[in-house]
Prior knowledge:
This protein is an alpha+beta fold. Helix content is 26%, strand content 20%.
Amino acid sequence: AKGVRVLLDAKPNPGRRPIRWVSIGELSEGVGTPERIITIGGDGTINAAASWLFERELDVPLALLPAGTGNNLVRGLELPLDIGDAFA
C-alpha cells in the first residue's frame, strides 16, 4: 500500500538495535525477519502490514497504533482508540 512504512535497522545504537523507516514497496526479499512491525494508521495500513507478513509467512508481533479515520479493526478488537493509550 502506498505510504506504508516499515521500521528497519540503520546504524549502531548501544544496547538497542538501530532503526530506520522504509516503504514496504522498497523492501527486498533479502531483508530478513523484523523483530516486530508497528503500524501507525487505519485499517488499510494494518491490512497492508498484515498481508506483507502473511505473504512471507512471518510470525512476528504486529502493533496497532490507530491513526486512521475508521479504525474498525482496532475498535472491533477493543483496543485503545487513543494513540497515546495504544502506544503505552
